[in-house]
Fold this protein.
Amino acid sequence: MGSNNRSERTTYIYKGKRISLKIIDTILPNGKFAKKEIVEHPGAVVILPILENGKIVLLKQFRPSVKNWVYELPAGTLDKVGEDPKECALRELEEETGYRAEKIEALLKIYPSPGYCTEIIHVYVAKGLKRTVPKQEETEVIETLILSLADAIELIRKEDIADAKTLLALLYYEKYFLDT
Amino acid sequence: MGSNNRSERTTYIYKGKRISLKIIDTILPNGKFAKKEIVEHPGAVVILPILENGKIVLLKQFRPSVKNWVYELPAGTLDKVGEDPKECALRELEEETGYRAEKIEALLKIYPSPGYCTEIIHVYVAKGLKRTVPKQEETEVIETLILSLADAIELIRKEDIADAKTLLALLYYEKYFLDT
């Protein structure tokens, strides 16, 4: 497998369900040649769900990668490159928490690991939440917490939250959106 | 290649210079069986360097993974699992910026992508900076910026900074450490 253009040659090591691994031979803007190991990822979403009473929905999830329980906002992977991230956010929010959002607003886009991964995470805040039925996957081990934003920020201060997208969504929302 | 214990079987797809890819068959805390694609990463550091005049050192770096120029604080990958992250931070800071730090303090630890990657990033703030000679690698395409923390925060507000570790180090430092 491979593709060619004037400045890059790609060799796939693995094409997986969610992530793929490729080696690229590329010419950098400084004219130098570089060989890089790159993880290809379709992109993802993370959602800060805010209930009518101002409380937020936070999950605690077992992550086999880091062999740890991790506080995370609801999140998910795009079905494929090009899926509308807003649609993905609405779907993942409902599946993971059992809330359907009437309003969803983009906060920012982040690269979690630009050194070796193509992933972009689209960060949303969701409001106008109506209760439905969560449909968590069997391989998702999740506890749901309802807490105030202040209590979530207190979890950050105590260094109990380590997930980058969750830290960023909470700190960014508190700083730039809370009083608007 | 593979290893066995009571609850996990690991098959390596690829063992690379920096990242490896493995498939794990694991038993989750809920007793269910799961097969996961996991990127193995030795861990990394990111450093917020603060000069005597209060200004910070920020880099703008071309990242082939996302085919984009990305604002990033100095950062780097541990040479191997188990390298002292503080040593790594001091080395990477000097290599990338040409500053040696007399004081380096841990801020927090983050998981950039716990859904599929083992990576932990250790976040530091560095002070007491003395000028030396940067030793950037040929495959690093980097511009160095010296700017105030307020100007960096303004770049965040304008959504010019997308790198998760950089956003977090800046927002976390401003919120919890600036006036202490």
Q: What stands out?
A: Chain A is about 20% helix and 45% strand. Chain A has a mean pLDDT of 92.
